[in-house]
Fold this protein.
Amino acid sequence: MKSTVAVTLACLASASAFAPSTDGRVSTSLAAAKGKEEKKPSIFSVISGMDLFAPNKDVNDYGARNSKNIKTGKLGNNAYIPDGLSKAQFEKLRAKEDKKKSDNYQKNVAKAGKFLDYTQFYIDRGTDTKDDWKKDVNLGHRMTKTKYDWSGGKGTENENKGWFTK
């Protein structure tokens, strides 16, 4: 009798384990107030919308180096000074190099935003109306002057200082 009851209970337990649930689907959302919820932006939209230059908008503009406090450090007591130079001479040399660097930067800042209008180049070359440029030796390209005589021809002493001349 005991064995019959044990077998019956085991059969009922296994049958109820595989039987479908009758509860219905359980919701995973929180049961908080179902009012108007504020939609938060996704992490991608937050990161892509960051403005890293917001505190100082012109920090990365061309020519902004002048407004920054960039300077060569001062020579201390244990500073490296090349052999053959005094501390004053080395400071003078560094100041000269800084001035040269600053002048070069100013020259490039002055050229910023200036460019050759390509359509004006075509009009000057004549490409827009005629084909004479195609018969030219340089096919309408601008030629540059070089320091050396690349033709290899015989010339004066000053003209024969190129690599390919004798």
Summary: The radius of gyration is 41 Å.
